[in-house]
């Protein structure tokens, strides 16, 4: 571990109260061709459960995904969930979802028409409609065609959104139109008031996570996953490294109790 990451890890390990704000896609799991295939594996579910059970440790997942998906995948864990870039927050497993903004009406139809037109020209593109944002995923489109269509969409939407309450986000193989003013930083505000005095640690891989990093208090720890430009002071290369770091916080995974390994018994000379 590089020295700066190692000293951040020691601060995390020694914190009297620790809050982890974790992005999901590209941070806890690698990207998949189809967004629905990124569901958590058993190792990840165990890791998140172990972290949530660690004393004075509060885990919050802060994702662009919908409430329905986060609940289906992670809903039984004792963690906070923040969906649609923290437009929705469910502070713990017993809490109800709360919205950060009032939703205007009628904003979706013109955006859906533009995205669906582009999806018809780019086989493999997926239009995903959520409460406060609409996403156009092109990870599964032939590479050059996907980039070409995305750049045309960026220009068209720039004009369409210029005088509106909406903004365009360019993510990793996804374009997203969301209400202006909705961003992941809202999760930091909510979590800080729920757990005052805690060390806040945020990890994320794309531009939407920069809002999370920007909202951290000065003593917070921001960790970028990957090689993009970031305001985070620290980096790790991949989701595997994120998992390694988090696993180190809770100690090694214990083997299942049903496994009896006779090699573990002490040898007597
Ligand atoms: Mg991500």
Task: Please summarize what this structure is.
The protein is α/β, with parallel strands linked by helices and 269 residues long.
What does this structure look like?
This protein is an alpha/beta fold. The protein has two domains: 3-100 and 183-250, HAD superfamily/HAD-like (Rossmann fold, 3-Layer(aba) Sandwich), CATH 3.40.50.1000; 108-179, 2-Layer Sandwich (Alpha-Beta Plaits). Helices cover 35% and strands 20% of the residues. The protein is built from eight helices and twelve strands. Strands 5-4-3-2-1-10-11-12 form an eight-stranded mixed beta sheet, sandwiched between helices. Strand 1 (18-22), helix 2 and strand 2 form a beta-alpha-beta unit. Helix 4 (108-121) runs antiparallel to helix 5. The longest helix is centred in the middle third of the chain and has 19 residues, at 143-161. The two termini are 39 Å apart. Mean pLDDT is 92; it is low at 257-269. The structure holds magnesium ion. Residues 23, 25-27, 204-206 line the site of magnesium ion.
Mean pLDDT: 92
Give a list of the ligands.
magnesium ion
Got a strand count?
Answer: 12
The structural class is: alpha/beta
What proportion of the residues is helical, as a percent range? 25-40%
Can you count the helices? 8
Poorly predicted spans:
257-269
CATH superfamily descriptor of the largest domain: HAD superfamily/HAD-like
Distance between the termini: 39 Å
CATH architecture of the largest domain: 3-Layer(aba) Sandwich
CATH class of the largest domain: Alpha Beta
């Amino acid at each position: 571990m590089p020295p700066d990451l190692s000293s951040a890890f020691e601060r995390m390990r020694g914190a009297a109260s620790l809050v982890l704000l974790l992005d999901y896609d590209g941070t806890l799991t690698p990207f998949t061709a189809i967004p629905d295939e990124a569901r958590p594996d058993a190792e990840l579910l165990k890791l998140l459960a172990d972290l949530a059970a660690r004393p004075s440790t509060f885990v919050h997942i802060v994702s662009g995904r919908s409430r329905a998906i986060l609940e289906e995948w992670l809903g039984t864990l004792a963690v906070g969930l923040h969906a649609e870039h923290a437009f929705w927050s469910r502070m713990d497993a017993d809490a109800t979802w709360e919205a950060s903004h009032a939703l205007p009406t009628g904003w979706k139809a013109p955006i859906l028409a533009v995205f669906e037109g582009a999806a018809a020209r780019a086989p493999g593109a997926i239009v995903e409609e959520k409460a406060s944002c609409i996403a156009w995923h092109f990870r599964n489109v032939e590479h050059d065609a996907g980039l070409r269509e995305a750049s045309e969409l960026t220009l068209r939407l720039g004009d369409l959104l210029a005088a509106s309450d909406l903004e365009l986000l360019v993510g990793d193989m996804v374009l997203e139109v969301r209400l202006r003013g909705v961003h992941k930083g809202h999760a930091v505000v909510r979590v800080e008031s729920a757990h005052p005095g805690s060390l806040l640690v945020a990890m994320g891989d794309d531009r939407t996570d920069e809002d999370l990093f920007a909202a951290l208090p000065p003593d917070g720890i921001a960790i970028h996953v990957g090689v993009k430009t970031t305001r985070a002071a620290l980096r790790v290369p991949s989701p595997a490294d994120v998992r390694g770091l988090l696993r180190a916080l809770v100690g090694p995974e214990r083997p299942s109790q049903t496994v009896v390994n006779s090699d573990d018994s002490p040898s007597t000379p």
